[in-house]
Amino acid sequence: MEKAQRHFEGKLDELSEIILRLGGLVEESIGRSVRALVDRDSDLARRVIEDDAHVDRIELEVDQLALELLALQQPMARDLRFITTALKINVDLERMADLAVNVSERTLELNEQPQLKPFIDIPLMARRAQEMVHGALDAFVRRDSERARAVIRMDDDLDRRMEQIFRELLSFMLEDPNSIPRALRLTSVAKYFERIGDHATNVCEQVVFMTEGRVIRHPWLAGMPRDGTET
User: Fold this and answer.
1) What DSSP assignment string belongs to 157-195?
2) Angle at 95 between CA 42 and CA 145, to 5 degrees
3) Contact, 96 vs 26, CB < 8 A?
């Protein structure tokens, strides 16, 4: 029995390590996608797109191991929450990588035309999104619900930055109709980083569930603030 338990715990550690490996690749993809945008580096943008296949392979690896643990080990409550959380986090991380690919695809299109404006606000937004992803993974590793809640609160700032960028780009489009295609692509890029923040928030909500057994995905239904804390 002890041998079986040690084997099971080793598999749980392996699952955690694979999730972290996936998270590291996602953080790298996000960073490279914004660097390709700012530096107008089409080669780097193409590498982000090509490397997404590696992220997809690791996502499948997580799914396989997690489902194996669920099917063969019949884990109890605490371990069951960890495994189901890993499965859900896995989906969010893969989607973050897809959004980095989307940024890179828009970069390739933008590089075919003159630059519309200096890239200041979007890189700041991207950096905040990266901070949220890193914080979410840190909360998962440490099983730290308070860290998770702090990351959730950061999403409001990301939303404000998105609105500010949208207003600025709208003014470009109103002043010069020729700028519309480029401005729309930049609006999409900003939206992609905002969505990365949303996925980081999802991860943190799952961390709170994993550590506390509390569902905070829809806190307004219980009259709670967005981060699921008691009023």
Assistant:
1) HHHHHHHHHHHHHHHHHHH-GGGHHHHHHHHHHHHHHHH
2) 125
3) yes
What does pTM read for this prediction? 0.89
Q: Does 144 map to a domain?
A: yes
One-letter amino acid for residue 112 of the chain = E
The alpha-carbon radius of gyration of the chain (Å, integer) is 20
Give the integer Cα–Cα distance in Å for 52 and 48: 7
44 contacts: CB under 8 Å, gap ≥ 6: 32, 35, 36, 104
Q: Could you report the per-residue pLDDT of 182-206, keeping only the tens digit for each? A: 999 999 999 999 999 999 999 999 9
Helix then strand count (H, E) for the chain reads 6, 0
Cα dihedral 216, 221, 224, 225 sign: positive
Structural domain for 140, as ranges: 2-222
We report the CATH number of the domain holding residue 50 as: 1.20.58.220
Whether 230 is covered by a domain: the verdict is no
Q: Which two tokens stand for residue 130?
A: 């990266």
Using alpha carbons, select from 53, 72, 66 the residue that is nearest to residue 17. Answer: 66
> Cα(122)–Cα(128) distance, rounded to whole angstroms?
10
> How many of the other CB atoms lie within 10 Å of CB of 164?
13
Backbone angles phi, psi at 131, to 5 degrees: -60, -40
Domain count, the chain: 1
| pLDDT, tens digit, 9 for 90 and up, residues 56-75 | 999 999 999 998 888 877 77
